[in-house]
């Protein structure tokens, strides 16, 4: 069973760059996308209901052209929840919690800490979002449920997770308080699936769109799949796919034993 996460930086834009060709070729069972930036009715029909995918589900922000998440599934989920219960957060369309048998898949677009003036003014909102989702999932974590949290976390966890850590200590995405919040998730038992299998440097999932940055691999690892202790025994592989173009992010994936659903 393969599960893939991708911040598409505008699903309509990604569609024009070959998203459906990638989706058809990708041997995935579930694909979660972030930063859809469109209401469902604004998406082309072939994106809303691509051939071979039993179910799609989209959550949009109240603000037009902003945020949003989407889910593509080969088999329909048993249930999908989309709210944290905090209006300011729910209005931004950042969350899908889908159940596939005994597996819970959380597709999430975590907030960026940058304000309109690139001033880190949204960091408190971002950290509050992290904490509220943590609390929403805490009981399942303790009870041994099989949970994956995937998406654009908008945080590079450790120095190994960005090309230039010394230059970005005051930049949202690598602030001490953001990294500490990520640490709290790991201390609680969540497993960074990619780092479980790969300890080396140079693995990133986002690059600035400035000329030559991606080619030189001056990137950040902002996209993750975290596994609960209950899910981790079923995770067989985790990967980043930097060769996939169409967005400033690339997809990340995990392969699981299909028994995880049963």
Automatic annotation (TrEMBL):
<dbReference type="Pfam" id="PF03372">
    <property type="entry name" value="Exo_endo_phos"/>
</dbReference>
<dbReference type="GO" id="GO:0008311">
    <property type="term" value="F:double-stranded DNA 3'-5' DNA exonuclease activity"/>
</dbReference>
<comment type="similarity">
    <text>Belongs to the DNA repair enzymes AP/ExoA family.</text>
</comment>
<dbReference type="InterPro" id="IPR020848">
    <property type="entry name" value="AP_endonuclease_F1_CS"/>
</dbReference>
<dbReference type="InterPro" id="IPR004808">
    <property type="entry name" value="AP_endonuc_1"/>
</dbReference>
<keyword id="KW-0378">Hydrolase</keyword>
<feature type="domain" description="Endonuclease/exonuclease/phosphatase">
    <location>
        <begin position="4"/>
        <end position="249"/>
    </location>
</feature>
<keyword id="KW-0479">Metal-binding</keyword>
<protein>
    <submittedName>
        <fullName>Exodeoxyribonuclease III</fullName>
        <ecNumber>3.1.11.2</ecNumber>
    </submittedName>
</protein>
<dbReference type="InterPro" id="IPR005135">
    <property type="entry name" value="Endo/exonuclease/phosphatase"/>
</dbReference>
<dbReference type="InterPro" id="IPR036691">
    <property type="entry name" value="Endo/exonu/phosph_ase_sf"/>
</dbReference>
<keyword id="KW-0460">Magnesium</keyword>
């Amino acid at each position: 069973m393969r599960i893939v996460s991708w911040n598409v930086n505008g699903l309509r834009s990604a569609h024009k760059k070959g998203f459906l060709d990638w989706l058809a070729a990708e041997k995935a069972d579930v694909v979660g996308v972030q930063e859809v930036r469109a209401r469902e009715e604004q998406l082309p029909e072939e994106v809303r209901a691509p051939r071979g995918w039993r179910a799609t589900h989209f959550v949009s922000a109240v603000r037009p052209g902003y945020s949003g998440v989407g889910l593509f599934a080969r088999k329909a989920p048993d249930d999908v929840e989309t709210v944290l219960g905090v209006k300011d957060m729910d209005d931004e369309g950042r969350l899908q919690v889908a159940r596939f048998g005994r597996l819970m898949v959380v597709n999430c677009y975590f907030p960026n800490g940058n304000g309109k003036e690139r001033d880190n003014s949204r960091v408190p909102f971002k950290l509050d979002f992290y904490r509220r989702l943590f609390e929403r999932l805490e009981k399942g974590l303790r009870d041994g449920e099989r949970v994956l949290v995937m998406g654009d976390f908008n945080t590079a966890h450790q120095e190994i997770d960005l090309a230039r850590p010394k230059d970005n200590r005051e930049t949202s995405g690598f602030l001490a308080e953001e990294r500490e919040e990520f640490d709290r998730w790991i201390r609680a038992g969540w497993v960074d699936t990619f780092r479980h299998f790969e300890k080396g440097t140079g693995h990133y999932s986002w690059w600035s769109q400035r000329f030559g940055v991606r080619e030189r691999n001056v990137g950040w690892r902002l996209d993750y799949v975290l596994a609960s202790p209950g899910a981790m025994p079923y995770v067989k592989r985790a990967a980043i796919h930097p060769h996939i173009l169409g967005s400033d992010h690339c997809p990340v994936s995990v392969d699981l034993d299909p028994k995880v659903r049963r």
